[in-house]
Amino acid sequence: MPFVALLDANVLYPVTLCDALLRIAETGVFQARWSEEILKEAADSIKRNTPTADSAVIDRRFRWMRESFEDAMVTGYQPLVPVMSNDPKDRHVLAAAVIGRANMIVTHNLKDFPAEALDPYDIEAQHPDDFLCNQWELDEEAVMAAMERWPEDLSKPPQTLEQILQRLERHVPQFCALVRFETI
């Protein structure tokens, strides 16, 4: 069975980071998982923090994610939420990871997922930069191919891989350095 990673709302919120994660997931290097609660949390955060953003565009983005990654949706995790021992506001994330048979939770909030809460379920929490660097190590060719195809999909406005990396670097600088090194 392929490596499974549950993506927390805070890594789905930044559009460039979310796009990178999903493009790499499309290669089959890992399987993405999330819950409806996680997607709602990400969408609501974007709407709250970017009041000028078009809600329909945001809703379309998350609808596309649901449709494009049909196997990613985790359901039936709610009964586990009360017994999770991590940070209360992120117990739903760990419960979804357990039910979704995730090996990893990809999150910026590592402090909310202490080892003692994850160890009983054989799950780790990893920062997205570390996670993407590890995906690179697992299958550099597939990850690089996904990154090289990315500019081909952008036309409004067109962008180079370097322009994409400049936006992505804020979230995953080590991963961007790996990609840049490969393109030199």
What does this structure look like?
The structure is a single chain. The protein has 184 residues and is an alpha/beta fold. It has one domain (4-183): Rossmann fold, CATH 3.40.50. It contains 10 helices and 5 strands, in the order E-H-H-E-H-H-E-H-E-H-E-H-H-H-H. It has helices spanning 9-12, 15-26, 36-49, 55-68, 91-99, 115-118, 128-138, 140-149, 161-168, 173-183; strands at 4-7, 31-35, 73-74, 104-106, 124-126. A 5-stranded parallel sheet has the order 3-2-1-4-5, sandwiched between helices. Helix 3 packs antiparallel against helix 4 (55-68) and helix 7 (128-138) packs parallel to helix 10. The longest helix has 14 residues, at 36-49. The mean pLDDT is 94.
Broad CATH class: Alpha Beta
How does CATH name the architecture?
A: 3-Layer(aba) Sandwich
Q: Helix fraction?
A: 40-55%
The CATH topology name reads: Rossmann fold
Strands side by side in the biggest sheet: 3-2-1-4-5
Please give the oligomerization state of what you see: single chain
DSSP summary, beta strand count: 5
Approximate shape: globular
Regions with little confidence, pLDDT below 50 for 5+ residues? none
Termini separation:
34 Å
Radius of gyration: 16 Å
How many helix segments?
Answer: 10
User: What do the pLDDT scores average to?
Assistant: 94
Describe the main β-sheet briefly: 5 strands, parallel
Which H/E pattern describes the elements? Answer: EHHEHHEHEHEHHHH
Instruction: Report the sheet-strand fraction.
Output: 5-15%
Structural class: alpha/beta
Tally of separate domains: 1
